[in-house]
Every structure is written in structure tokens, then in C-alpha cells.
Amino acid sequence: MSPPRTQPEDRRPPPARRPGGRTARVRAQVLDAVRAELGEHGFDGLTMDAVAVRAGVHRATVYRRWGDVGGLLADVLDAAGDDDWRPPDTGSLERDLAGLNQEIQDAMAARPPIMAALIAASFRSERAAAAQRRLWEDRYARCEIVVERAVARGELPPGVDARRLLITATAPLYHRLVLLGTPPDPDLPGDAARTAVLAASAGAFTP
Amino acid sequence: MSPPRTQPEDRRPPPARRPGGRTARVRAQVLDAVRAELGEHGFDGLTMDAVAVRAGVHRATVYRRWGDVGGLLADVLDAAGDDDWRPPDTGSLERDLAGLNQEIQDAMAARPPIMAALIAASFRSERAAAAQRRLWEDRYARCEIVVERAVARGELPPGVDARRLLITATAPLYHRLVLLGTPPDPDLPGDAARTAVLAASAGAFTP
């Protein structure tokens, strides 16, 4: 859901400029290294030692603070949710949902495939899986305003189950791209958005 | 999509009664062992040696024929598609789709969690992932008759994109149960079926 900030930073500011002091600086360096290693090598190539070397941080610090690779991934996912992302606000429910779906498809197709690698990694580590679910929960919660605005504009009746509508709009993207492994389809974001809006207009998400 | 025959066989017939001679018998014993090991230990506990021991087959045979754990999983998935499964035929599109979704939810909730473990394993092995996609493709192809029958009954206009309708009906199940990790919801199979039918009736899958 939405491209969380999981891209490696191309122009990483010098560590000294990281806000929050040494602890925050070390965390930022380590998480940047995790994203870069994950993008280059995937989960199977991700090791605590490689992350420590790439981050320029003592191995002992990485082990003590993150425990294992699952802990590193969980922290990357938690950090991804620590942003000010907001869903599209185009004045139309269908366009908002299509824009949201386009962001999902773009994030899944991005190279290096950080988002895809994080989702795959969540099948390897219970800590990463829990963090991935927290991130999705947060993203869906932030997206509910898309539905609330549509109700306020009179596009939908009050009482619409926003979460079910949002899942209906986005699930085909995740199902096709993550599970079925179909290549990105330029029509898919808009088609799935339109389908959800038609279903909503027909009363699918109203008690 | 649908519960493929991935359950370990509780009352396995004696090997000598397996049809197809020794090669088929060995395959059946090995795949039963893979399902049982996967159900008990998940992917991380699945080893070639444990499968060989459990199946009562020489290690060398297992390595020669399946190569690695990914090869074993791919063959389990290919074997799952080698059945005569057909989607529900209730006389109503919505009930057919709800029944299909119920089968998916039941399979995902089954204990031991063979289907869930196979999906998770498809993130670990490219061979397993390709086999999982073949199985889904086969299942969705078999389900298209559900839509064709609805068109024949006059429930839907001709020209409906059956695959898009089927993905819309089933994707929320996979998204919630596999990715979002929400517990099975007794309303979900029917709600997702109804949503897809309402969208179809509103023209979502017609050019």
C-alpha cells in the first residue's frame, strides 16, 4: 500500500547531519544499509555482517540492537511507516483509488525491488511479518480519508465500510503482482479502482 | 484457489496398490512425505533427508529426481493440479463464487497449514513459485465456467471478462489471509462474492 520510504537514499547526507544524535544516526545508517543490501541481494544475501560493514557500524552494535536479520527488516518496515505519506486527493474517489493503485504498482515494479523483497522477507521472519502488517494497517487507516471525502462530496452514501472498499480496490494489485506474479499491467490500477467504485455505488459496502 | 489435494493422506494405501508402477509409487510416497514434513515443520524444517527417511526411499533417489527442496515443493504443487477439481455449480453466480471463496478460506485455515506453507515456500524457491503460478493459472482457468454459466443463464451480459471477475472475487481472500494476516472471517467469502457480482452487474468487467 503506497510506496513507503524504502528506497536506498542515493544522496545520503553526511551522517553528522542526521537529526536525533548518535543513536538515530546509527539507526539511519544501518537501515540504509539494509535497504541497499536487500535491493542488491534479496533476503538470502542479507547478513548482519554485510549490513554492519556497509553501514560502517560495529558488528556488536548491530547484533545487540537488532538481534537478527528479521529484527533489521522489522525496523526498516517500522521506519517506512514513520513518514507523512498521504493518499491522493484528486476530488474524485475513482481517481484517488487509481492513483493509490498506481503507487502500489510502481512500488512493486521499482528497481531495486525493495518493497517486493520486504514482502517476501515477511514470509521468512515473524518479526518482519508483524512489522509488515503494522505498516499495511497504518497505510489503510490513512487511506480511509479517501472514502470519507467521497461521502462528504456525496459520491457515496454515509455508512460505507471504508476498509472493505479499500481492500477491494487494492487487493487485485497485490494478488496479481505478489502472488500470481503477473507483470505490471498499465490498465490494472484504474480497472481495479473503477471496479471498487462501481461495487460501492451498487451498495456492496453499505450495511 | 480451491483446496488442491495437498493434505497428507491419513489412510495411505499400501504402496503396492499405487497405480502406475514403481516410479509413480515412489513419487507418491515422496510427495506424501513432503506434505507431512511441510505441515509439521514448515519450509525451514523441510529437508531432503527427512523426506527420504519419512518416505522410506533412498536419499540418492530423492536427490537425483527432485534436486532440492524447491524441486520437491514444485512437484507437490504440480501434483495438486493433477486432479478433477471443479468449481461449485449452484445455479447462482454469487453462490458459486461464495462457495469458491469458502473453499479458499477453509484451505488457508486448514491444520496442518499445507496450503499456507506452500504459498510461503513459493517466496523461497523460484521453482516452487513457478509451480504455484501454474496451479493458480489452472484453477482460475477451470473457474471460468462459473462465469460462462452465469452468462448462459442471463445473469451477466456476454463479453464479461471472466478472469478479471474471478480475480476481483477471490483477491480479497488472498490479500487478507496471506498478506495482511487477518484471521478467517466467516462473512468474507460471501461479502467478496457479492461485491464482485455487484460490480459485474454494474458493467465493471464488460468492455
TrEMBL record, chains A, B:
Residues 24-84 form the HTH tetR-type domain. Residues 47-66 bind DNA. The keyword DNA-binding applies. Pfam families: TetR_C_11, TetR_N. Keywords: DNA-binding, Transcription, Transcription regulation. InterPro entries: Homeodomain-like_sf (IPR009057), HTH-type_TetR-like_transc_reg (IPR050109), HTH_TetR (IPR001647), Tet_transcr_reg_TetR-rel_C_sf (IPR036271), TetR_C (IPR011075). Residues 1-23 are annotated as: Disordered. The keyword Nucleus does not apply. Gene3D superfamilies: Homeodomain-like, Tetracycline Repressor, domain 2. SUPFAM superfamilies: Homeodomain-like (SSF46689), Tetracyclin repressor-like, C-terminal domain (SSF48498). This is TetR/AcrR family transcriptional regulator.
